[in-house]
Structure formats: structure tokens, C-alpha cells
């Protein structure tokens, strides 16, 4: 590959990223022809059916649910309907009285018109016309009153059907708000099933028996999908249960991890230093997230997890005591003293979890290396050419900086596979890369797109997209200096600097899963925003509701209806003029494994999000259009635009060994 000529853009002052632990080897020079050169793309396994892929895209287009972004929710106040009905009825009654008063006057004018006076004849004719018009208007108002009354009855019946199972106390409790997702999913399932049955032309019990079947994947309606394909209807799943349970509000315990002492609340709670947007009590999800991070870090720091929170231990104790004899929890300790029930359960639970959690312990890196992939070292880093990187059939990724949700997802999926293959030891190469695309228009205006991929290893690995990255990304304070950001975020800053970014330049960010967390973290970081103009953030399958991002940035969170990852932050995504959430379904019975799909893991894969994003862009929803207009306005595109791509790979060196089971 030919190296790009020296750029004439002189970078402005940049923060010093070299603070003792970071080394940068080489520059992330332009890899455009290597990454996105011409060549036939293979089709991803499981996505070879053009009909099924097309049906999944069409299903996404017709079923997207958009919240926020200025769209608002349609709310019907039946009290207002009744008031309007009464007002229209009163107007009709008043017109009736006018008509009654006009009738004798019309008759008298007609009698006087018999005298031959032309003016009296015209007056009589006018009175007759007015009376006839009043009769028509009164009749029309009567129909309107009847329709308003019927509409009020239908809305009240629907509201009763959906909410009638709840008492007033339940509706006014904090739990009601957290159950909104479950209620919405029930309504979505009912609507999707109705559409599928209509498409399949099921008009009799015999049709139903022959065209509808039940499986682990859900309800399959033969011919109920777009274009005559089969429709897959999935009801509330693990993601909806998590959304409901993890959003349950808690009173933040004084001895909770991170509480007091000026430290951040666990997991980015309302008082967390990452700029959480929530207010009020901490949720169960926020608490558990912080407890998990502190526990995993404790394996490294102490050789054992930190003491469990008293409130949590008491809850576990209560559950166990209810099923077991109480005396079993009062046994001698090694020192001879007796332990109370809570302390006994706490010790046993730590011992039980140790072997499961210790391999995932978080070990801060002693030294990190961010390497710019260049034409000279591309082969050594297993850079994969376009002919070896599959995409779903029908998904196009030309390599230009994306200005649509569909293009953003395609580039994100492509970035996932830029570094792949097997290393010298025969093992898979970990994809710990960050991609920056620089677009320069014909007017010399420049903008930068940061593409952040998701988690590669669910343990503390040599790469930066691992479980440590999740813990760091979810708890990074918004006030952190750029040199103290999580690894993947610092790598993105380094790639931007290699690409020649200057203070004040435009940046758009996108990420999947952990990459979405990092994208939201950069957009919420004060130092990053002071340097760069962050115009838009697009995330896929990421828990980003707890990040406070200013309203000058357009934020769109795309979530698959069956993905169990987005609810894990324990807070709902904010709905605002600048923040929106798009929930999408991809009825694709052949691609995901049924059991994985029920668990919400298959729905988390980026392949499905690329299909869903195609449907989102095709839906022409006003909120989606507004977000894409921000992308198009921020990023130069079209004829005359020059695109450069920069890739950084991050690895940890001199990593501290994990604590062996039983140590400490």
C-alpha cells in the first residue's frame, strides 16, 4: 500500500498523553485503500439469504419505537375529551335555540313576501337558507359529539385493559415507573402479532392451526413477515425483566461502595463523578454495578473481595434463613468466636463466588502501548483486507465517513473485523482497536469520526476491550483529565491527534456495547468537550443512560428489543430534544440461535444491529432524520470529499499476575 503524502494540516496544541505509562509507536497513517479498497466481500455466515435479510430490514423499518428527540409520547386525557364533548354539545344546543327563534321569523317574512315586496322576498329566502345551514351544522355537531364520546370510551377501555391490574397505590409507587418497559414490550408484542396474523391472511381457526407454531424462539407465523417470509414474534424477555428489576430505586446506604469519603457512587449513580443524569435515590442496577466493580478490583488490591455491604448481606441472609434452620448460621469461627447470621453468610458467599469471579479481577495496567497501524506494520498486526471481512448480504459499507444510522452501523461492524485472524501462536488475535476517520471536503473543512468497538474478552486480557475496560468505562469521572481516561478512550484521543485534529475541530462518535460506553464517556468528559466540538453520538447496544451529555450534542441510542445489555446500567435513557432512543426488532428466524436469543446474547451481536440500522434509516422517522441531518451537517461527504482512516491498537505490557485461588 502506498503511504499518503505529508499532510499540510498542522496540529494545534494537544494534551500531553505521555505521562509515564503510555508509549506511542509510529503514526496511524492513512489506511484507506487497505481497509476499504475494491474487492468482493464474503457474506457473513447465517446471513446468506437475501430474502431473510431483506425481511429483517423491512421488519426493523416498520417496527421501530422512538423515544425522546423531541418526538414525545402520545398521551390521551379522557377528561379533556369529555370536556370537549360537553362544550360541543352546548354549542349545538345554543345553535338549536337560535334555530328555534329563527323559525317563526322566517315564517313571518314569507307571509309578508306575499305582498310583492322584493326585499321581503330576499329576506325570507336568506332566512330559509340560514335555517337550513343551522340544521346541517347541528347535525354535524351531533355526529362529532357521538364520535368524541366513543373515542373516550375506547381510550378508557384500553387504559383499563393495560393498567386495570394495578391498584392506585401500585401506580403511584416508584416501581410503576420501572415497569414501563415491560408494559411497552407487552403492547409491542400484541401489535406485532396482530400485524403478522393480518399479513398471513389468517381468517379461521384452521388457518391459525396450520400457520402458527410455538418454539423456543417465540411465536412463528408462516407468511406473516415482510415479503411473505415467516414472522417471529418474541414476547417480554430477559432484557425487559432486567430493565424492570434493575431500575428499582434504592436508598443509597451510607456504607455502600463509593459512598461517603468524597468518592464516586458505584457505577455512575446520581451522585457519581461520571456526570450521571439521574436524580433521587440510587437504583438497584447502579448499586450492583458499583459493588461488582469494587469487588473485582478488590481481588487485585487485597487478594480477596472487599467486605460486602451490610444491607446486601442482610438481604441475602433473610432469603437463606427463610429456607434453612436459623441455628445453622451460628457456628464457631476459626478464632473460636461466634458469628452472627449476616457475617456468616457474607463469609460463605465470598468463598463461593471467589473461584467464579477471581479470573475476572481487574488489574490496572503497569504500562500500555498504543500502536498506530501503518502500511509498514499492517501485516504484523493482522490487518484484514476487505475481501476477508464479511457483512450481511445487502449491507453496503464503502468506507466513507458515515452520515446515516445505517452507514454508521456498517462502518462500526467493519471496524470490528479490521484486525483479525490468528497470531504466530495460532490463537485468535484480540481486536483492541480504535478507528478514526478524517473527512476533508472540497472547501477544506475537516471533521473526524471516532469508531469504538465492543468487548472482546470477558476477563482481564492483554487488550483494552476487556472486562477491565467495562469497569473503567462505567465509572470514569466526567472531570477526569484526558491522560486519566480509560484505556480505549485515551487510545481514541491518541488516534485523533495522530490524524491531525486541532482544538475546535468537529467530532462525531459511535460505538457498540463497551464502545458505546466509551463514546458516551468521551462526549460527557469536560476536558474532551473543551478541546473539540462534539456534534453527535450514536451508540448500539450500550448502557449509556447514566452519562450526562450536554444538549449541544445530538445523542441517539439504538437498542435491539431483545438485547439484555442496554438495561444493565439500571437507569432509563433520558428523553430530551437532543437525546433519543430507538428500539428496533429484526425478525430473522434463521440467523440467531434460539436459546441465545431468548437470553438476549444473540440480539447483542453487531450483525443484527447493522440490519436494524438499515431499517431505521429507511423508516424516515422525523427524530431519526433530525439526528442524521446533524451527522450530515457535521461531516463533509459527497463528491470531492477526501477520507483518511487511522487505526490504533492497544495492548498492556508488564501486566501484574492474577492472584491465584486461595492466596491472601
From TrEMBL:
Stretch list, region Disordered: 251-283
Superkingdom, natural source: Bacteria
InterPro entries according to UniProt: AB_hydrolase_fold
Gene3D superfamilies (UniProt xref): alpha/beta hydrolase
Protein name: Fungal lipase-like domain-containing protein
Amino acid at each position: 500500500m502506498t503511504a499518503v503524502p505529508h499532510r499540510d494540516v498542522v496540529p494545534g496544541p494537544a494534551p500531553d498523553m505521555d505521562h509515564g505509562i503510555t508509549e506511542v509507536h509510529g503514526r496511524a497513517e492513512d489506511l484507506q485503500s487497505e481497509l476499504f479498497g475494491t474487492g468482493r466481500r464474503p457474506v457473513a455466515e447465517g446471513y446468506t439469504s437475501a430474502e431473510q435479510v431483506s425481511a429483517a430490514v423491512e421488519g426493523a423499518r416498520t417496527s421501530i419505537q422512538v423515544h425522546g428527540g423531541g418526538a414525545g409520547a402520545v398521551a390521551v386525557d379522557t377528561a379533556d375529551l369529555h370536556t370537549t364533548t360537553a362544550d360541543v354539545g352546548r354549542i349545538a344546543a345554543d345553535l338549536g335555540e337560535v334555530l328555534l327563534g329563527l323559525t317563526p321569523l322566517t315564517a313571518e317574512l314569507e307571509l309578508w313576501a306575499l305582498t310583492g315586496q322584493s326585499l321581503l322576498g330576499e329576506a325570507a329566502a336568506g332566512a330559509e337558507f340560514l335555517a337550513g345551514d343551522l340544521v346541517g351544522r347541528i347535525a354535524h355537531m351531533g355526529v362529532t359529539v357521538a364520535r368524541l364520546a366513543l373515542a373516550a370510551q375506547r381510550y378508557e377501555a384500553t387504559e383499563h385493559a393495560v393498567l386495570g391490574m394495578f391498584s392506585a397505590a401500585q401506580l403511584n409507587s416508584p416501581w410503576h415507573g420501572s415497569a414501563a418497559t415491560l408494559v411497552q414490550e407487552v403492547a409491542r408484542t400484541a401489535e406485532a402479532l396482530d400485524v403478522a396474523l393480518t399479513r398471513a391472511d389468517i381468517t379461521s381457526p384452521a388457518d391459525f392451526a396450520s400457520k402458527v407454531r410455538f418454539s423456543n424462539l417465540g411465536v412463528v407465523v408462516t407468511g406473516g413477515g415482510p415479503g411473505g417470509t415467516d414472522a417471529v414474534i418474541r414476547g417480554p424477555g430477559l432484557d425487559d425483566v432486567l430493565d424492570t428489576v434493575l431500575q428499582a430505586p434504592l436508598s443509597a446506604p451510607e456504607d455502600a461502595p463509593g459512598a461517603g469519603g468524597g468518592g464516586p457512587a458505584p457505577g455512575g449513580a446520581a451522585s457519581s463523578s461520571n456526570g450521571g443524569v439521574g436524580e433521587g435515590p440510587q437504583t438497584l442496577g447502579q448499586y450492583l454495578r458499583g459493588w461488582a466493580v469494587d469487588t473485582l478490583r478488590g481481588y487485585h488490591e487485597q487478594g480477596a473481595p472487599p467486605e460486602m455491604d451490610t444491607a446486601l448481606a442482610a438481604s441475602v441472609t433473610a432469603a437463606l434463613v427463610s429456607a434453612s434452620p436459623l441455628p445453622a448460621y451460628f457456628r464457631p469461627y476459626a478464632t473460636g468466636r461466634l458469628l452472627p447470621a449476616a457475617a456468616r453468610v457474607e463469609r460463605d458467599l465470598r468463598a463461593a463466588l471467589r473461584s467464579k469471579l477471581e479470573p475476572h479481577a481487574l488489574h490496572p495496567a503497569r504500562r500500555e502501548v498504543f500502536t498506530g497501524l501503518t502500511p509498514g506494520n499492517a501485516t504484523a498486526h493482522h490487518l484484514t483486507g476487505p475481501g476477508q471481512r464479511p457483512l450481511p448480504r445487502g449491507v453496503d459499507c464503502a468506507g466513507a465517513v458515515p452520515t446515516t444510522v445505517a452507514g454508521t452501523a456498517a462502518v462500526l461492524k467493519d471496524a470490528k473485523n479490521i484486525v483479525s485472524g490468528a497470531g504466530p501462536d495460532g490463537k485468535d488475535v484480540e481486536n483492541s482497536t480504535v478507528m478514526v476517520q478524517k473527512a476533508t471536503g472540497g472547501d477544506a473543512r475537516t471533521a473526524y469520526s471516532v469508531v469504538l468497538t465492543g468487548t472482546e474478552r470477558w476477563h482481564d486480557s492483554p487488550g483494552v476491550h476487556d472486562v477491565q475496560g467495562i469497569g473503567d468505562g462505567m465509572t470514569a469521572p466526567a472531570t477526569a483529565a484526558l491522560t486519566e481516561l480509560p484505556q480505549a478512550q485515551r487510545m481514541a484521543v491518541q488516534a485523533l491527534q495522530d490524524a491531525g485534529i486541532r482544538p475546535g475541530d468537529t467530532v462525531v462518535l459511535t460505538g457498540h456495547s463497551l464502545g458505546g460506553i466509551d463514546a458516551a464517556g468521551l462526549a460527557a468528559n469536560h476536558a474532551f468537550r473543551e478541546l473539540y466540538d462534539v456534534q453527535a453520538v450514536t451508540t448500539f447496544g450500550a448502557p449509556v443512560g447514566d452519562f450526562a451529555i450536554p444538549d449541544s450534542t445530538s445523542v441517539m441510542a439504538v437498542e435491539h428489543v431483545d438485547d439484555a445489555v442496554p438495561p444493565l446500567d439500571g437507569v432509563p435513557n433520558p428523553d430530551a430534544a437532543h437525546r433519543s432512543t430507538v428500539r428496533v426488532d429484526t425478525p430473522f428466524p434463521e440467523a440467531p440461535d434460539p436459546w441465545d436469543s431468548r437470553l438476549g446474547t444473540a440480539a447483542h451481536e453487531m450483525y443484527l444491529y447493522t440490519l436494524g440500522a438499515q431499517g431505521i434509516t429507511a423508516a424516515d422517522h422525523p427524530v431519526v432524520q433530525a439526528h442524521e441531518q446533524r451527522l450530515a451537517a457535521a461531516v463533509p461527504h459527497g463528491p470531492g470529499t477526501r477520507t483518511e482512516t487511522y487505526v490504533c491498537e492497544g495492548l498492556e505490557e508488564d501486566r501484574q499476575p492474577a492472584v491465584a485461588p486461595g492466596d491472601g
